[in-house]
Amino acid sequence: MVTLVLPRLVDVSAASRRSASVTERNVAALRSVYWLLLVSGFVEPLLYLLSIGVGVGALIGDLTLPSGAVVTYAAFVAPAMLASSAMTGALAETTFNFFGKMKYMKLYDGVIATPVQPFEIALGELAWAMLRGSAYSAAFLVVMVVMDLTAPARALAAFPAAVLVGFAFGALGMAIATFMRSWQDFDLMSSMQFVLFLFSGTFVPAEAYPAVLRWLVEVTPLYRAVHLIRALTVDTGGWSWTLDVLYLLAVLAAGLLIASRRMGRLLYK
Questions:
Q1: Do 161 and 248 touch, CB atoms closer than 8 A?
Q2: pTM (2 decimals)?
Q3: What is the pLDDT of residues 149-203, one digit of tens each?
Q4: How many CB atoms lie within 10 A of CB 140?
Q5: Which position among 49, 57, 64, 124 has the lowest Cβ density within 10 Å, counted as fewest Cβ atoms?
């Protein structure tokens, strides 16, 4: 029994170290200008919150959620901005940057000459993306607490959820990037990302849409992310958010599996 289990534990430990080395490479390669990009990723959803959540919210007034909870429009929009921020940060790292490293910099061609495997590269890049996404999420939750849009305890509960959202979109983005042929392909992805941003229960409840469109909205990953974080920060709708967690975990697993397999085919061909 020991001889069977011990090698597996050693393999897992070694794989974790190799994945961490990929993350460490990204940290070491940072330049001072890069931090400006990190700041921009936080400022954009904050501006949406202030302009639409607070500005337009003054004209709309309060909203009644499906659970019966009554919240201000700013409190309704804020969780959606948090989910969108986590999505944007994760996708930026695992699509554009990941594609550039693989297709043009040929970075991973050198990495696979070491014991690091494609799946470990994917894990390392995903962990790096989550450092960026977690920074966005933590900063935005502080803003929500300061603006009295959620309670500190709820913000603490929402942080792991935001990290899960980033992981799910990071894995999904990495899988998508392995199918990209050129930079022009990202125009389509950016358009789809913007559609998700607008129609995922972000600014209006999904119940406001016609039945067919509502069904389409509710099966999108960003809607599940928004629904999860909104339930944890402002809603009292019971345990319906557990479905969101399972959905995002499934997206995370599928994205990692597809990304690692596609990377193996592209790098070893």
A1: no
A2: 0.85
A3: 999 999 999 999 999 999 999 999 999 999 988 888 888 888 899 999 999 989 9
A4: 26
A5: 64
